[in-house]
Design brief:
Elements (H helix, E strand, L loop, with lengths): L2 E3 L4 E6 L5 E5 L4 E15 L2 E18 L4 H7 L4 E15 L5 E4 L10 E5 L6 E4 L2 E6 L2 E6 L8 E16 L10 E11 L4 E13 L15 E8 L7 E6 H4 L17
Antiparallel strand pairs: 1-13, 2-3, 2-13, 4-5, 5-15, 6-12, 7-11, 8-9, 8-12, 10-11, 13-14, 14-15, 14-16
């Protein structure tokens, strides 16, 4: 029976070494597989005559605008860790009658804080204000050395350290793992019923290239490109068509993982 596909799939990625599930994502907008095959020919009288099959190279690209920590870490060839993070912060407040500005419930890294006048536009950093910073209990206090009229807007920029923060690091010593990628794709028959196409890519390694930009108008497009290599049997991928299980079920089965009891 004829069928068509209009689905980017639900994806599960497993580490081939330790068999851990690295990420599960149901939000891809594109799921592209590309294979290039080289051929070498012996020529006869200047024309290709006898062909020899050459090397095959393949890539898998997953694009999504809705992602999660583990998928983003994989895109960056990294992992999610929890540790202390040093964060830059900006505070704008008004000086009191004692030439003082107080930031409540915050701590600063010693030597990191600076104070500035605020320009007339209410946003730009102006001239630096000389003074001293101190940590008073849970608050940061800045006291100006020179004249500072009460009510003057002051911008303070400082570093603070936060504990137990999720972090993804990109380093020059990242480990390169092999992954198995499973994708479940909805297939629609001409009569309106569905089945599941289960694709398995046996030996995938993320490329070191990372490219994404933050955009004020459009959602960020997160892209993961992996080199697909053959496994020990020489297999790049396989398609399994699960007709009986999903043949007459509605499209919603592809948005929620299906659970089955072991027999």
């Amino acid at each position: 029976m004829q069928f068509a596909i209009k689905d980017a799939g639900n994806v599960i990625i497993v580490n081939n070494t330790n068999k851990e599930i690295v990420t599960i994502t149901e939000t891809p907008n594109k799921f592209d597989y590309k294979m290039d095959a080289e051929a070498v020919y012996a020529k006869a009288k200047g024309s290709n005559y006898i062909g020899f099959e050459g090397a095959k190279t393949a890539t898998l690209t997953i694009e999504q605008e809705v992602t999660d920590y583990s998928t983003l870490a994989l895109m960056m060839n990294s992992e999610v860790v929890k540790e202390e993070a040093e964060i830059a912060k900006k505070f704008v407040g008004k000086a009191d009658g004692a030439k003082k500005v107080t930031i409540l419930n915050s701590k600063f890294v010693s030597g990191s804080a600076k104070a500035f006048l605020v320009e007339a536009d209410g946003a730009s950093k102006g001239e630096e204000i000389k003074g001293s910073f101190s940590q008073v209990s849970e608050n940061i206090e800045f006291t100006a050395t020179g004249d500072l009229a009460e009510g003057t807007e002051v911008m303070i920029v400082y570093l603070t350290k936060l504990p137990n923060i999720k972090k993804i690091k990109v380093t020059n010593s990242a480990k390169s793992y092999s992954y198995k990628v499973y994708a479940e794709v909805a297939v629609k028959f001409a009569d309106g019923t569905y089945m599941a196409l289960n694709a398995t890519y046996h030996n995938c390694r993320p490329q070191g290239n990372i490219e994404f930009g933050f955009d004020a108008e459009n959602p960020v497009n997160f892209s993961l490109t992996m080199d697909v290599l053959p496994n020990a049997k020489g297999e790049f991928l396989e398609f399994a068509f699960v007709e009986e299980e999903l043949r007459n079920e509605v499209m919603s089965v592809f948005s929620t993982p299906k659970t089955t009891k072991s027999k």
